[in-house]
DNA sequence: ATAATAATAGTCAACATTAGTCAAAAAGTT
DNA sequence: AACTTTTTGACTAATGTTGACTATTATTAT
């Protein structure tokens, strides 16, 4: 019952395919035409919904026969991906990005739903609301990295 | 029977729908138009009448296709106990006290071992690492309260 | 080989479309 | 009168859409 905008619809379309195949290769202009939007909207969808935080790796090629390839990756089982993720987090991370990472961990089965919800509660915007936004994002990054480390070494 | 002000009427309208469906998704401007009030009045109604204390959680999205989603949640049986804990915590709590609370919740079976460890990782001294101890304890209190609030309902 | 041309995808900023915040004004209560 | 709650609207923030311009790669012509 959600998703009245084109971006959500394109996202859903791509993820439905990815549920089966783990990887897809598209032509930007074809997808744009299919959904009756400008080609750059495909970039917007990819940049907001198919990031490494979401558990996706995207590669593309321009020129004749160009393509955009989207692959679903498993976050914690793949050490390289995890390192990349930690690098992306760096010293600060906002609420939306943290949410995406936790959701990815849930989808990969690393966290149960309840575990994910508790972690999200700890990092929520309202929870960490500081005078200074930068401090909020810094603390969130520290919490998230602490959680990821905890998950690495397991109980 | 409530008073006749607009806020009460909007509240009643939304809660009547929620009695059937468990969750609704509205467009702020549409509801405002329906009741002939300014959009921000919808925020007022939500903030005063659809809080977690009342058993509701609210999520929203801005931009094209934006929405406000209100869900009725089932409060768990020990929700009032959690409320008491929240009252005791107040504005700040140190690391040791927080540990004791989490341990109690583990012993009572409210949290699994893994859940408890994740929560502790989020609130750990090294994780929060503030220069000012008072600020650290304030942040820890906010995190712990947020988690306790989350524990008041399932999924 | 090299240069020109065609065929792709990427970037960025302006504009559009929502919801959120905050504080003053108005209305209601005690 | 003093205090609380509700109403209002100007301003802010977040998200989505569009198109002109740029960058890269492949193909074709010289």
TrEMBL record, chains A, B:
Domain CtsR C-terminal dimerization, chain residue ranges per copy: 78-149
Residue ranges of every copy of the CtsR N-terminal HTH domain listed in the record: 5-74
Any GO MF annotation of the entry: DNA binding
One of the GO biological process terms: regulation of DNA-templated transcription
InterPro entries referenced in this protein's UniProt entry, alphabetically: CtsR, CtsR_C, CtsR_C_sf, CtsR_N, CtsR_N_sf
Keyword terms: DNA-binding, Repressor, Transcription, Transcription regulation
Top-level division of the source organism's lineage: Bacteria
Family stated for the protein in its record: Belongs to the CtsR family.
Protein name: Transcriptional regulator CtsR
Organism (species): Liquorilactobacillus sucicola DSM 21376 = JCM 15457
């Amino acid at each position: 019952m959600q998703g009245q905008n084109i971006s959500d619809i394109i996202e859903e379309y791509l993820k439905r395919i990815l549920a089966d195949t783990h990887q897809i290769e598209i032509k930007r202009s074809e997808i744009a035409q299919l959904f009756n939007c400008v080609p750059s909207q495909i970039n917007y969808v990819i940049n907001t919904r198919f990031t490494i935080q979401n558990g996706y790796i995207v590669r593309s090629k321009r020129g004749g026969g160009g393509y955009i390839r989207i692959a679903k990756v498993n976050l914690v089982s793949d050490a390289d991906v995890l390192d990349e993720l930690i690098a992306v987090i760096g010293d600060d991370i906002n609420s939306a990005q943290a949410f995406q990472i936790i959701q990815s961990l849930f989808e990969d089965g690393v966290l149960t739903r309840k575990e994910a919800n508790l972690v999200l509660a700890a990092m929520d915007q309202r929870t960490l609301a500081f005078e200074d936004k930068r401090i909020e994002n810094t603390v969130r990054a520290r919490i998230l990295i602490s959680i990821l480390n905890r998950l690495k070494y397991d109980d």
